[in-house]
Each structure stands twice: as structure tokens, then as C-alpha cells.
Amino acid sequence: MTRASVPFMAMPSAAPLEMQVQDLACAPASRVATPPEKHAARWRIAVFVPALFATLSLMSGIYRWLSGAGMTGLEWALLLMIGATFVWAALSVSTVGIAIAGILAREEADKRAPKDVAPISAALLVPVYNEVPWDVFGNAAAMLDDLAARKGTHAYTLFILSDTSDTLIATQEWQAYQALRATAPFPVYYRRRASNTDKKVGNLVDWITGWGAAYEGMIVLDADSLMSGRAIERLTSELSADSDAGLIQSFPMLIGAETLFARLQQFSNIAYGWLLAEGLALWSRSEGNYWGHNAIIRTQAFAQSAGLPHLKGRGRDDLILSHDFVEAGLLRRAGWRVRFLPRVTGSFEETPATLIDYTLRDRRWCRGNLQHLRLLATRGLHPISRFHLFHGAVSYLLSPAWFLLLVIWALLGKDSETNVIRYFNEAHPLFPDWPPAMSHIDSAVFLVIMYAMLLTPKIAAAAIIACTPAATRVFGGRGPFLTAFVIEVLLSVAYAPVMMIQQTKAVLRATFTRTEPWAPQSRNAQQYPLATLFKFHWSETVIGLVLTAGLATGLVSMWLLPIAASLLLAVPLSALSAVNIARRAPHRLAINSPYTLREPAIVTRAIAARARIKLLLTAERPAA
Question: HEC string of 136-201?
Fold first, then answer.
């Protein structure tokens, strides 16, 4: 089917731009020898060296604990798994450390562009696939109105790029487009492809090769993305001011959280994420990453440098699924800067409402991120870009690694615990009277130490907020903030083992199956039936029962008790995640964040626009 025969299409004159598919086995000539940014090396040393040193020190100490009576094969496996998992927690801690150091030293990786920049043309691209039309077009209307109110110097055009296969939804998209076009302060266009070829990647390639040459920059959004006019203007001005920038990524904050699980994600994103983002911006510099949305890209640079091939081999022809990391690496390979601006305010996205919805999305992300292992040998990638790819895969491989670590430690039983106690008695005079009989207490101490390391980034960020009156006020005060912090930490610890098992299953699915069913993300809260909960969480429940039996008979170390409890309670925890606490207790909510207490103006504008368009579309629903 040709473009002209695709139903529901209203596009400007063609402005084709060739999309050059990249050869991953041969590095292209870099457009310019970009010198390293000032201080980048020292921040990278400050992140990676302490993390590696801490990991080697821990492994050395545990080796001394375990080797009193000689090391068994299982103990060697335990030692290696501890090192493989601990180093990533240590990297998070050191990232937080340099963020704090950067704040104290007033070192900024997020410096504003000059006020007076040359105006450029930018396209706002919204790829959609069977999404709720009034949500998509309501967000679009709010962004355009907010942009118009700012009266900026840049020229903007909005494109709704539909791959929708559902005829009714497509009809509503067309009606919503016509309504938006009639009132929008900027040009608005709509294109529906005949087929969802190559998913989002193919959708964007189709736009670039058809109309991309007319726009210097493209702001890529997701169906649930929402950006204020100020944020869009900031990104556009940054691209105009920095001729070497190929991509500039904002830090999206979570909105629309009504359920318990969504509120936990939102609180974590706002309260802790900013500190990790500051550290990431400091050490990544021009070798930043791309998260696939809420970012501006230089269209010509992307077309020349980031065209993705299919992955071939062993009779397979695979689309690169987690394309964003790879595109960022290819842009940097060609000599373009990839920047991350964590302080761009007004960049938002939504989050899955329940544990099940989060897990279903995670399965798709897992399959794509594990593909990154096949891309590590890509020629010409910057070492930091290669690290981003590796980290993307490891973020999912850590779950089976943790699970394997727990299995090994459970199999080792209490003999190893006695060796640990002996080491403490000899090397730590603070605990001179700990006898081997207190191995259960010792195990609890090690559990606390392990969780403390994982929670250090949260604790550090929370401490900074708690000690800053202006920051605590936006969370409703120090008391409400600390209450929300404690609840978030406790529930995160409870959900962690369940998510570990689900991500382990996702890794196995990605390893042993070819495809993952794809459906639009569920963005509305829903309580799943008990039968669905049991079907989804039967594996955690069974593992929890096995661990509980092992604890009762003394075969399994007591330090696994909290993990066994979480797995045993997977079904009620999953049901709890879907509770709509915003509706039940809007004024007495214990998990508040700035965006639940004071809704951003752009969010209020989007909600009103959604309601208006929904009323229009449902009133004009065609007969079946």
C-alpha cells in the first residue's frame, strides 16, 4: 500500500531525508575529533575506582571468612556471585557520592544555553499504537497551548504518527486530530501507517525519510509523554546553541500516580532519582544516554548516524528492540555529543499502575536490553557508550544473579555462618562475645548490611531533603516526607524479592523464546481478579513455601526469612499494589510527593484537554 492510499492522513509537502543504515562491524569516520570535556576523567575515576575497590575489599574479606577450613566449589561460586552483584550497588553509591561532591563544589553538568540563540524549526513527534485517543491528543493540546503562551522564537510543528491497527481507535484519532487542528496555535499533522513495520523504530524512520529534511530538530515523545512549553523551549534552545549536540535528553518525572504501587514509583523518582541523575550527568558528560522519549535530536545527525540494521545470525533476523541506547551510542560514535540535562523541569511521563502492569512492561524491556550483549562488539563505540549498553543488560541479569546467590547461600547452610562468626570473634573486638549459637543474629546483621548498601542512594537523597526546609515544604513538611520515606523503603524491600523472581523469569523468557506479546501499556488502575493474581505469581508462592519449609526444619539460614515472607505473600502484595489510595484518602495520604500535593500547571491543562476531547469523541462515536 502506498502512502497516498493509507486512510486518515494529513501531512505537509514531502521533504525526504535519507536514513543511512549503519554497519555495526565497521566504524564510520567521525565528523569531528571531539575533545574530552573538562573534568570528565576525574569524575569517572571517582565513580568507578571506589566501586571496584569496595567490591574487591568485600570479596577479600569474605574469602578470609570462608577459607578457614578450605574453600569448596560452592563457596567459590558464592564469592564470585557476591562480587558480580555488589559492584553494581557500589557504583550507585559512588554515583551518589560524586553528585553530592558536585553540588558542594558547584560543578554543573547542566549549564543553561545562552538566552539569545538562533531560531530553529523543531518537530514534536508522538508515535502511537492503539492508545486511548483523548489521552494522546489531550496531552498534545496542552503542550501546544503552553508553548504558544511562552511566545518563544522557535518554530514548532506537531506530528501524530499512528501505527494503530484498531479501526475504532483510528477513527477516533482522526476525529481528535481534526478537532485539535482547528484550534491549535501551531501546525498539526497526522499520519497512519498501513502496518506496524519495525514498531516505533520503523514509525520514526518513515517520518524521517518522508518529511525529516524540513526540521532541524525532532522532539521524540511517547504516547504518555507530557512536556511544558518551558521544557520544550529549553531543549530546543540547547540544540540551537550547541552545534555539536546530536541528542539532548531530559529527566522525565512521573505523574498520574493513583495506586499504591504507582505512588511508590513516583515518590522514588522524585525524592531519590534527582541525586542519581546529577551524578550520571557529571560522569557521562558528552557520552550520555537516550531513553527513547522526552529528548530532542538533531534530525540530520540522526539520519546520517543512527539508522539501525536488523541483527542477523543463526537463521534469525531480529529488530533491535531497545533502540534508544543503541542510537545514542551510534550518534556519539559519529562524533556528535549526547547530553543529559537532569535539571530541565516540566518533563513528565506516566508509570504502570500495578505490579503486574510493571512486570508486563519489564518483559519487553528485558528482551530488548539483553540484545545489547550482542551489540557490545560494535566497532567504534565510545567506552562509555559501550558501558551504557552493558549496564542495560546487567540491570536485568542482576535478578537471576541475586536469585542464584540466594540459592547458593541456602545450600551452604550454617557451616559457612559459623566461619563468619569465627572471623568476627577474631577480627572485630566490638563483638567479642558472639558465640556460634548466635548465627541467626549474625545472619540478620549481614542482611541489614546488604540492604543498607542497596538503600544508600535513597537514604542520602532523603537526608538532603530532610535537612533542607525548602525541599521538605514541597513534600508537605518534614514529618509527612519522612513518613512517606519510611513507607516507601519498607514496601520496596517487600516487593524486591517478588520483582527479582519476575525479572528472572523475564530473562529466561528472553533467552529461550523468540518473541514477546506486545500490547499498549495499561495506564489506568485496575484490580486484577484473585485467579489472575495466583496465575501470575504462582512461582513466587511456591518458592516462598519451599523456603518457609526449609526455615521450619532448620535446613535454610534464618537470614532468608524476610525474603521467604515476601515471596510467600506475593499474591496479597500484588493485590495491595493496585489499591487506589488517591481515591480512598486524598487528604490523608502518607505517600505524597510534590506533584500529588500541587499538580503542575501543564498536568492540569492536560487533564482538562483530555476530558474535553473525550466528551467530543464519545458523543460522536460511530455506530458499530
Answer: HHHHHHHHHHHHHHHCCCCEEEEEEEECCCCHHHHHHHHHHHHHHHHHCCCCEEEEECCCCCCHHH
CA distance 163 to 170: 9
For residue 1, count CB atoms less than 10 angstroms from its CB and return exposed for 0-12, middle for 13-18, buried for 19 or more.
Answer: exposed
Which ranges of 272-337 does DSSP label H, i.e. alpha helix?
A: 273-284, 299-305, 323-333
pLDDT tens, residue by residue, 225-235: 999 999 999 99
What is the DSSP secondary structure assignment for residue 11, as one 8-state letter? -
The residues near 498 (Cβ < 8 Å, ≥ 6 apart) are 355, 537, 540, 566, 567, 570, 573, 574
Cell of 511: 533467552
Task: List the grid coordinates of 218.
Answer: 525532532
- Does pTM surpass 0.85? yes
Helix/strand/coil percent split, the chain, to 5: 60, 10, 30
pLDDT digits (tens, 9 = 90+) for 402-456: 898 888 877 765 555 444 444 444 544 443 443 333 344 344 545 566 677 788 9
Q: How far apart are CA 58 and CA 86, in angstroms?
A: 9
**Which residues have CB under 8 Å from 304's CB, separation 6+?**
20, 334
